[in-house]
Amino acid sequence: MSTFQEQLFGEQSFVQFTLDEAFIEGRPSLIIDNNVVVELWDNGVLCFHPQGGTLKNSILLSVGVHGNETAPIEIIDQLVTDILAGKVAVRQTLLIVIANPKAIKAGRREIDENMNRLFNGALTGKDEDSDERRRSRTLMDYSRDFFGMDAHKKIHYDLHTAIRGSVYKQFAVSPNAGGRAETGHQCLLLGQWGIEAILTTTQKSATFSAFTANTLGVTSFTLELGSAKPFGKNNITEFAAIVTGLREMIGGDVDLAAERKVAKRFIVAAEVSKKTEAFRLLFASDIVNFTPFNVGDVLATDKDYQYIVTKSGERILFPNENVAIGQRALVIVRPDENYTENTL
Ligand SMILES: [Zn+2]
Predict the structure, then answer these.
(1) What average pLDDT does the segment 80-99 reach?
(2) Exposed (0-12), middle (13-18) or buried (19+): which is 292, by Cβ within 10 Å?
(3) CATH of the structural domain 270-343, one choice from 1.10.3210.10, 3.20.20.70, 2.40.50.630, 3.40.50.300
(4) Where along the chain do its domains lie?
(5) What is the pLDDT of residues 243-252, one digit of tens each?
(6) pTM
């Protein structure tokens, strides 16, 4: 008898099948161990739906919004293989999304444009369409369908890796409004899973996680898990803690350890946009994320403008001098003083 994986994807893994665009219309589905319905909603969109029992959490795991960020894609491929082989029990409703298969296949961050700026309903129907825009619209629809179902908690992790290094090797960006108990609980869990820093940002943004948080009311995070490497070159042990955490969460038994690591918490101090072609960043181009600066340091200049550090503890994030005019070129963050663990 053929295995569940063979029934869904033939001789291939989920990711191989997705990159081959072998998907057939009509939502093929089957029932695996523990009475879990598996449904292939679209190419690279796979839903696991445990039947019966109490209300489940809905968890969206997305990877490959940027096609060259391979480690999360490998992690998810292994997870699907293990679920279908009965090695991981699915006790929550789970949607797995390979976001940008064309870019992954091409080994590129993007085909036409940065997909993580396109999760915004207002971009629909524009004349200047692109592969990324079509796919982001589809993924917004599936996210709405998925999180439209009744659930106990609604959670989204969008997994990335970065080209730039970081003082905090693994960190998260939280687009969730402050003060929600579930966000606080999730931040404790992420610390336990080895995430060293969490930036809370309520600035307007069209990332995948900001869309699910702001439009669908989900507790969402962009997770930056380390450096981007080609397929096969990732050291999966670097991701062991987060993989374990995700597996436990899917399996339904998540507990906070008594002695756990706690992530440092940051907020946005300022966002610096490029206003003219005269814009310059005044530090080395290969600087790592979360590098701290001193009061009085000048970080950026533009025509009639400069950014000077005014408070101790300010650090830089996502610097990019080469963005288009009007786009964000630098984020300045500082410790969130509401969290005492920042002072430890
Ligand atoms: Zn990315």
Answers:
(1) 96
(2) middle
(3) 2.40.50.630
(4) 4-251, 270-343
(5) 999 999 999 8
(6) 0.94
